[in-house]
């Protein structure tokens, strides 16, 4: 097993006035060296919560990892102290968010923020750190880096701010980069440039990347493997080509049917998936997608489907793929 980052059976809950929300319900994932894993799903499916759990950046007052394990290089992250975790963040695993203005400090100069990380993690002198910051800005495509170091975030365009956030995440050469909807707020041209930058960064640094997105176009253009999430669970996982060619979960098929394609007649209506995801205050006891699934069977409402291994790296959690569904006794599957 050569996974660099392994998440096993992760459960995360939020306590709210309305009760406990089970935002992540048994997520497992593997990230190998140098690969790009996409996590795709609608907003509220638990993909950002999964990312924040890995970084241990969940809100402390109302959220909790209730079960599961997160290992980086064999080291269990869920048990690290906050101080140990601060050493992991930035130098081993770094995260890039959608909105630099809220993720970074708008009152500090770009240079101060870039240098802070390398001074702390790599114990460089200020002069060395400054040199490194200039190189990094150049690397992410920012001209006049010497001048730009002295500026603040608001002096940059949206695309440039994302470049700066990527520079900050990458400056200590972390082995894992997590990008949470990094291009969602950008227009299509800038989005393509930022995705190019991620590819270039990976080629140069061999970093592994987790790309979190609701956009299958982004998935197609950058991912090696894809995890599809629905209602706090991974419902399908496959290499990217396999997923697009041979989607097996009805939710994945619905997502693929809802992307605009060139071979569709212009103005043709997209097949959005009817219905809404279930309430995670009280998740359904069977398959979470049952209420929206055109193939739902009786067993689907009664018991959650297990993850079934198809060819190669392809797994799917759906009763349609589970031979036991055909021979199910009325009291349910024997081994579930
Ligand atoms: Fe549909 Fe049943 Fe598969 Fe769920 S388990 S996706 S309800 S067929
Ligand atoms: Mg999100």
Ligand types: iron/sulfur cluster, magnesium ion
When the domains are counted, the total is 1
Structural class: alpha/beta
User: What strand line-up does the widest sheet have?
Assistant: 6-7-8-3-9-10-12-11
Q: Which stretches are poorly predicted, pLDDT < 50 over at least 5 residues? A: none
**CATH top level?**
Alpha Beta
Count helical runs: 12
Give helix % range.
Answer: 25-40%
Which shape, going by the Cα principal axes?
globular
**Radius of gyration, taken over Cα atoms and rounded to an integer in Å:** 21 Å
CATH architecture: 3-Layer(aba) Sandwich
User: In whole angstroms, how far apart are the ends?
Assistant: 26 Å
Q: What share of residues are in beta strands? A: 15-25%
Number of strands: 12
CATH fold group: Rossmann fold
* CATH homologous superfamily grouping: P-loop containing nucleotide triphosphate hydrolases
InterPro entries: AAA+_ATPase (IPR003593), ABC_Ni/Peptide_Import (IPR050388), ABC_transporter-like_ATP-bd (IPR003439), ABC_transporter-like_CS (IPR017871), Oligopep_ABC_C (IPR013563), P-loop_NTPase (IPR027417)
Protein name: Dipeptide transport ATP-binding protein DppD
GO molecular function: ATP binding
Family: Belongs to the ABC transporter superfamily.
């Amino acid at each position: 097993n050569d996974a660099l980052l392994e998440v096993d059976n992760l459960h995360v809950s939020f306590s709210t006035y309305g009760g406990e929300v089970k935002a992540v319900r048994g997520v497992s994932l593997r990230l190998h060296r140098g690969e790009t894993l996409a996590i795709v799903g609608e907003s509220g499916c638990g993909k950002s919560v999964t990312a924040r759990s890995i970084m241990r950046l969940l809100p402390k007052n109302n959220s909790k990892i209730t079960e599961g394990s997160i290992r980086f290089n064999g080291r269990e992250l869920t048990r690290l102290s906050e101080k140990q975790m601060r050493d992991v963040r930035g130098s081993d695993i770094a995260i890039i968010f959608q909105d630099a203005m809220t993720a970074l400090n708008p009152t500090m100069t770009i240079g101060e923020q870039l240098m802070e990380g390398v001074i702390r993690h790599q114990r460089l002198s200020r002069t060395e750190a400054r040199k490194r910051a200039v190189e990094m800005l150049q690397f992410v495509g920012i001209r006049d880096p010497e001048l730009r170091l002295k500026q603040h975030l608001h002096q940059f365009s949206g695309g440039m701010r994302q470049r700066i956030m990527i520079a900050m995440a990458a400056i200590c050469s972390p082995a894992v980069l997590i990008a949470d909807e990094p291009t969602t707020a950008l227009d299509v041209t800038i989005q393509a440039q930022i995705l190019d930058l991620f590819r270039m960064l990976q080629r140069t640094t061999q970093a592994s990347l987790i790309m979190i997105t609701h956009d299958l176009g982004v998935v197609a253009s950058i991912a090696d493997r894809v995890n599809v999430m629905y209602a706090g669970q991974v419902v399908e996982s496959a290499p990217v080509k396999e997923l697009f060619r041979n989607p097996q979960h009805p939710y994945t098929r619905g997502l693929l049917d809802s992307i605009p394609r060139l071979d569709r007649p212009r103005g043709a209506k997209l097949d959005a998936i009817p219905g809404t995801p279930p309430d995670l205050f009280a998740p359904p006891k069977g398959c979470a997608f049952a209420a929206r699934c055109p193939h739902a069977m009786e067993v689907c409402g009664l018991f959650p489907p297990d993850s079934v291994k198809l060819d190669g790296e392809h797994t799917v959690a759906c009763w349609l793929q589970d031979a036991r569904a055909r021979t199910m006794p009325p009291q349910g599957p024997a081994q579930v």
